[in-house]
Amino acid sequence: MYDLIKNADKELYDSLIGETLRQTEKIELIASENFASPEVMEAQGSVLTNKYAEGYPGKRYYGGCEWVDVAEDLARDRLKELFGAEYVNVQPHSGASANLAVYFSFINHGDKVMGLSLDHGGHLTHGSKVNFSGKFFDFTPYYLNKETERIDYNEVEDLAKKNKPKLITVGASAYSREIDYAAFRQIADKVGAFLFADIAHPAGLIAKGHLQSPIPYCDVVASTTHKTMRGPRGGMIMIGKDYQNPHGIVAPKSGRVKNMSEIIDSWVMPGMQGGPLMHVIAAKAVAFKEALSPEFNDYTIQVMKNAKTMANALIDLDYKVISGGTDNHSMLVDIRNKNITGKDAEIALDKAGITCNKNAVPYDTQPPLVTSGIRLGTPAMTTRGMKEDDMKTIVEFIDKVVRNHDNEDVLNSVKNEVKTFCSPFPLHKKMS
Ligand SMILES: Cc1ncc(COP(=O)(O)O)c(C=O)c1O
Predict the structure, then answer these.
(1) 4 sits in which H/E element
(2) Best probe residue, ligand 1, of 126, 179, 224, 273 (max atoms within 8 Å of C-beta)
(3) Catalytic residue list contains 262
(4) Which is the most buried residue in 77, 210, 266, 317, by most CB within 10 A?
(5) CATH superfamily of 298-422
């Protein structure tokens, strides 16, 4: 493995091997991570990285684009089929870039927006003060209901009526419940706002129809391609049915702009990006083909079954799973009753071979770098072929670590058990 790099660059080789071993020997529970297939990685490591292709298929600013056009058209066509979308853009380098292009396509500097607060599960790009979104636009956060720990659509409506946002962002990084996009559409219509769904986390589950799709209800939808979609690291933007440029929206490119699709295309490039990453777009095409397969459907069903099993096993051991469970691939666990912070749990679990991230829980009293919770997800270990019983074993490991987080001997012995437990599950096992 990595034979060429081994000879050319020993220091970097060590990092690649170290990371390969880390991924192989540890239990990966970061809800936003997954293991892309060897085919996805082959495309990403291909000669397409050499090509400049500013523009879009058939309309490039560079010559020699006939083969990269094929790759981008494949990615676009497959993505349209997956989500039933008339328009897609597969060029955003990341989820954050996709969101940036969306905001610039719909609203102007200083406009009012609403998004789920970061400390209640929202994302940085949903209005955090340290992010471009919070700096460029006037965001009002909405929060989860204190009792249900779910989105309270009445509260969102009241807030929207009070604030009159021009756009409402819906979506999250740490929210385990199904989102009712139809309810959000009604709220947006009552206040005359655009509705933007960021489905970076559950995209793969939505693509296979296991969660409500935002496509029929939202003016625009964006996502990452590397979480439940199991593709290369990147972003994408979609519209269910293209429509005429609503009044007041500007495109960075001069000339006549009739449709929303043209505005978004021109905000992605030249508005905020130069040359597209054609090797990544080719890898997106591979991932979208995989996602269209029946095997991927089985995979997404298993991801959700595994998440439910994990949440229930945690609850059985007296862990407080936020909102009492999960509808998707992830869960947030408040570990205050176990007398440990999110930060210390993350560190102890990592020492024991279990990777997850500390995460604020709703109405957390700890600072963001400490937190009272951990976020767990099943996409990665499900890719390795794990099923419900394996989730129960993982929860037993977690509990042992949390109960003995100060005991290095226990952490070491769990680490060895974890390594043995993981060994029958190769990283790139295809789901049957
Ligand atoms: C809801 C949501 N949107 C956007 C992003 C940003 O994606 P990226 O890290 O690719 O910029 C994330 C990443 O975690 C996310 O969870």
Answers:
(1) helix 3-8
(2) 224
(3) no
(4) 266
(5) Aspartate Aminotransferase, domain 1 (3.90.1150.10)
* 241's tokens: 């049915």
Beta bridge partners of 367: none
- Active-site annotation holds for 60: no
Look up 258 and say whether it is catalytic.
Answer: no
Q: Is 177 a catalytic residue?
A: no
Q: Which atom of ligand 1 approaches the CA of 226 most closely?
A: 10
180 annotated active-site: no
Give yes or no on whether 42-291 and 298-422 have one common fold. no
Q: Which tokens in the block code for residue 405?
A: 């987080």
Question: Model confidence over 307-359: pLDDT tens digits?
Answer: 999 999 999 999 999 999 999 999 999 999 999 999 999 999 999 999 999 99
Cis peptide before 270 (omega within 30 of 0): yes
Mutate to test the pocket of ligand 1, among 125, 199, 375 (most ligand atoms within 8 A of CB): 125
Is the Cβ atom of 133 under 6 angstroms away from ligand 1?
A: no
- The answer to whether the beta carbons of residues 305 and 379 sit under 8 Å apart is no
Cβ burial of 409 (10 Å; 0-12, 13-18, 19+) is: exposed
Parallel, antiparallel, or unpaired: how do β-strands 112-116 and 138-142 relate?
Answer: parallel
Report the candidate in 230, 203, 350, 331 with the shortest Cα–Cα distance to residue 286: 230
Q: Which residues pair with 167 in a beta bridge?
A: 113, 194
Q: Is CATH 3.30.360.10 correct for 42-291?
A: no
Q: Are 143 and 170 in contact (CB under 8 A)?
A: no
* Domain locations along the chain: 42-291, 298-422
* Residue from 28, 142, 177, 224 carrying the catalytic annotation: 224
Place of tokens 């994990």: 310
Cα dihedral across residues 137, 196, 240, 193: positive or negative: negative
**129 carries an active-site annotation:** no
Confidence bin at 245 (pLDDT 50/70/90)? confident
pLDDT tens column, 41-61: 999 999 999 999 999 999 999
pLDDT tens by residue, 83-137: 999 999 999 999 999 999 999 999 999 999 999 999 999 999 999 999 999 999 9
Residue nearest to atom 8 of ligand 1 (CA): 95
131 lines ligand 1 (CB under 6 A): no
Nearest CA to ligand 1 atom 4: 95
Radius of gyration, alpha carbons of the chain: 22
Pairing relationship of beta strands 320-321 and 330-334 according to DSSP bridges: antiparallel
- Kindly tell me the sign of the dihedral angle through the C-alpha atoms of 264, 269, 271, 275: positive
